Amino acid sequence: MLRGCCWLLVMGNGQALVAEPTITLRLGEQRLQGYAAAWSESRVMFVGRDGHLWDFHPSQARDFAKVNDYFRGLSQSEMRGELQREFGDRYEVSGTGHYLVVHPAGQKDLWAERFEQLYREFQHYFTARGFRPIAPKFPLVAVVCYDQNDFARLAARDGVNIRSGTLGYYSPTTNRVLLYDTTAGQPGADWTLNAETIIHEATHQTAFNTGIHSRLAAQPLWVAEGLATMFEAPGVWNSSVHRQQSDRINRYRLDRYRNYVATRRKPGSLEKLIASDDLFRSDADAAYAEAWAVSFYLAERQPRKYLQYLRLLTARQPLSDYPTANRLQDFHSVFGRDLDMLEVHMLRFIQTLN
């Protein structure tokens, strides 16, 4: 039997309890403790107390034992201790409420509060629009590497193949953000790339931990990347200071989208983006630009339907595939079947932005 959801109980300290039993099991040489978030005859999705998501065949696990009736993620102090042991004396671990940030020693003031600020602004953005995010089940972890070499080494350890030019990423498997300091710790250096990377990747992480996206069911890549690119704009991630619609425009993505429209975009591209993730593999620059444009249009012009669509996606059945027909059906159920007209309205809206 599959479990599509579970009950959450929020303690006075903000930590969430999950009404599923905590169990231990052995997977290969590893002893895991956590809860089975979803399972079938051929697959188990198991969430550890540190937030790591394990995906395996039931036959691979053995030595099951029940610990108690409820699951609770590691506390801040427990997680901090584990991270300090994992990364050693070269790194420090700083806590900022919802975040634990592993960073080069002596750099707390550069990193920790920036992640927490993004979390607060993310909560504000959705709460103000009537979509109250849930409490994370675990402290959110970000790891800031000393340099690009350290970043590549840790990414390889996690089994992540990073492309040239990658500055950071969020892994739904480890539930961590990993990035590196593009300034190499140089005082007074331009921090723009670091700040943009934090905003984008921490948006992914917060969305997957607060019920905006689901780690247990396939989510369209354009939805996740569209939301993260929207948050790159100051009027989204810092709306208390930047209050105008013009502040919510991601200028870089707008420029890339207009270039895409002028050079190679074809009619019907909206339907293709909704139907599959293929564009991200064939033309990543266009895919990110289109994902931003569609998401920004829906969030600005059809906000209730946009939130309804996000709810539909995050409630999808765990372990299920998401073929083209189902992706289109879900989108049609919220926004209607006339995608050609929706595309016309979106293109006109984007043309008016300045």
Features:
354 residues; alpha+beta; 5-stranded mixed sheet; 13 helices; globular
Structure overview:
- The chain is of the alpha+beta class.
- The chain has 13 helices and 13 strands.
- The chain has helices at residues 76-87, 108-127, 148-157, 192-209, 221-231, 234-237, 251-263, 269-275, 278-282, 284-301, 303-314, 324-335, 339-352; strands at 8-10, 16-18, 22-27, 30-39, 44-48, 53-56, 61-68, 71-72, 91-95, 99-104, 140-145, 168-171, 176-180.
- The protein has a five-stranded antiparallel β-sheet, with no helix packed on it. Strands 9-10-11-13-12 form a five-stranded mixed β-sheet, sandwiched between helices. It has a three-stranded antiparallel β-sheet with strand order 1-2-8, with no helix packed on it.
- A hairpin with a 5-residue loop joins strand 1 and strand 2 (16-18).
- Helix 2 (108-127) crosses helix 4 (192-209), helix 4 (192-209) crosses helix 5 and helix 7 (251-263) packs across helix 10.
- The longest helix is centred in the first third of the chain and has 20 residues, at 108-127.
- The chain is globular and about 55 Å long.
- The termini are far apart.
- 33% of the residues are buried.
